[in-house]
């Protein structure tokens, strides 16, 4: 019961050979490699992910409802220890205490700071969560506005929309390693978009930013600053970006900065005071289901209160005003976030951050000692390594892969035991893939740097510290 099978029809996304542009890619357009257009309209066969017998509602020719659900729960329980490729804290401890809330429909429609005529909401919890983050990111409570979103993408959409409303003719700048939702925002809002190059570690190329700012000097700048890139965990340097704006002649009334801190917004503040509204930033967003953990996707978006009037509209139907993206919002998520923040506290976060950094370094060192190409950025818990050669291995460990890279995100619920199991499995499989050294692993120097690559060409200079 609950066994997992890797279906034959599973096809991971194809890797495009370098130098070839796939169909639908705008090479010289505004979105460059960040935007892929129309996917082939050829019908595809439904892909079965898990070995579950789920019948269509209303049909009685399959297992009972309870049996189907128990099978699903058993499968997920088995898969927890193999979830290492995506930034989700899936070890959530408070579900039993909060389960009684599922009997209520909770809808936080409209502005979280204004009540409306319906009592089934959790805005008091929502404001308490927002106040906690306002303190963390150093903005006075009477100076901010925010809400609990449905995830990091909505936070990016909202933050960039605020910037667009302040500067309707502004140009959106984002690095090529920014989350894909940033390019999505540019497309949705019909914004002019400048795609900034990224360095080998994933950080924004500030010289390219400077060149493009000077090129567009006549228009305001809306800049997406990534505090921890999706794949490599690189952190764009906010201070360098602010200095670059100043050097290019942009005053504070000519730019808006949105900080996408989806994963790192609850990590970096406990290491380095980098995310703060004491600097001229416009908004910050995080994903609540990532480092903190929540059974459903959610996020937190905070901006300056003086900016929100550009978006707020009175809605008589709900007896409130609304400046959110989604309107109706999950009323359960603020309570889950509030409970976790209250139970964990600052000391709990500091312990989680330290453990994750220690475990990420442990994984990186173990892989490096085994002669595997690997990279770990400063201030990151994302370990980037050479892409496994076998689709079933990628699927078993639920890895995210880009080009010749894969990564492991060392979240709070990932133990040394899990990492040891991954390392052992990887080393065993590599013997088969590379025939005990008769075949050389691929060169990934262009992806993670020559100093991190252990291919036959670069390993001569490879020295284990």
From TrEMBL:
The keyword ATP-binding does not apply. InterPro entries: Group_II_Decarboxylase, PyrdxlP-dep_de-COase, PyrdxlP-dep_Trfase, PyrdxlP-dep_Trfase_major, PyrdxlP-dep_Trfase_small, Pyridoxal-P_BS. Its cofactor is pyridoxal 5'-phosphate. This is Aromatic amino acid decarboxylase 2. Gene3D superfamilies: Aspartate Aminotransferase, domain 1, Type I PLP-dependent aspartate aminotransferase-like (Major domain). It comes from the Eukaryota. The modification N6-(pyridoxal phosphate)lysine is found at residue 290. The keyword Lipid metabolism does not apply. One of its GO terms (molecular function) is carboxy-lyase activity. PROSITE patterns: DDC_GAD_HDC_YDC. Belongs to the group II decarboxylase family. GO terms for biological process: carboxylic acid metabolic process.
């Amino acid at each position: 019961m609950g066994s997992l099978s890797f279906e034959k029809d599973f096809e991971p996304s194809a890797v495009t050979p370098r130098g070839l542009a796939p169909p639908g890619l705008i090479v010289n357009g505004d979105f460059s490699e960040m935007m892929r257009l129309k996917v082939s309209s050829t019908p595809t066969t439904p892909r079965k992910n898990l070995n579950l017998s789920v019948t269509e509602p209303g049909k009685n020719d399959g297992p009972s409802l309870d049996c189907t659900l128990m099978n699903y729960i058993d499968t997920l329980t088995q898969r927890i220890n193999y979830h290492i490729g995506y930034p989700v804290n899936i070890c959530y401890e408070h579900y039993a205490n909060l389960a009684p809330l599922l009997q209520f429909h909770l809808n936080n429609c409209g502005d979280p700071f204004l009540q409306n005529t319906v009592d089934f909401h959790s805005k008091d919890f929502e404001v308490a969560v927002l106040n906690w983050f306002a303190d963390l990111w150093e903005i006075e409570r009477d100076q901010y506005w925010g809400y609990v979103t449905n995830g990091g993408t909505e936070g990016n959409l909202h933050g960039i929309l605020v910037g667009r409303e302040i500067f309707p003719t502004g140009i959106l700048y984002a690095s090529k390693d920014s989350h894909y939702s940033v390019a999505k925002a540019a497309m949705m809002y019909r914004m002019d978009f400048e795609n900034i190059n990224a360095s080998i570690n994933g950080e924004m190329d500030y010289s390219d930013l400077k060149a493009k700012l000077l090129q567009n000097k006549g228009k305001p700048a809306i800049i997406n600053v990534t505090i921890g890139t999706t794949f490599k965990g690189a952190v764009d340097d906010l201070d360098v970006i602010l200095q670059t704006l100043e050097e290019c002649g942009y005053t504070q009334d000519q730019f808006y900065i949105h900080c996408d801190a989806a994963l790192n917004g609850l990590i970096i503040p406990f290491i380095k005071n980098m995310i703060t509204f004491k600097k001229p930033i416009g908004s910050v967003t995080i994903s609540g289901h990532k480092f903190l953990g929540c059974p459903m996707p959610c996020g937190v978006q905070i901006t300056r209160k003086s900016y929100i009037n550009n978006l707020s509209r009175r809605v008589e139907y709900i007896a409130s005003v609304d400046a959110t993206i989604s309107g109706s919002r999950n009323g359960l998520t603020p309570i889950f976030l509030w409970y976790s923040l209250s139970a964990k506290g600052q000391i709990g976060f500091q312990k989680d951050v330290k453990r994750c950094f220690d475990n990420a370094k442990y994984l990186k060192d173990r892989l490096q000692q085994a002669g595997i190409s690997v990279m770990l950025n400063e201030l990151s818990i994302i370990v980037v390594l050479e892409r496994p050669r076998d689709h079933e291995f990628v699927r078993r460990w639920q890895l995210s892969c880009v080009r010749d890279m894969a990564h492991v995100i060392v979240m709070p619920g990932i133990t040394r035991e899990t990492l040891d199991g991954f390392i052992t499995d990887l080393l065993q499989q590599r013997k088969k893939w590379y025939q005990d050294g008769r075949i050389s692993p691929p060169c990934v120097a262009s992806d993670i740097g020559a100093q991190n690559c252990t291919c036959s060409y670069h390993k001569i200079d490879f020295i284990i510290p």
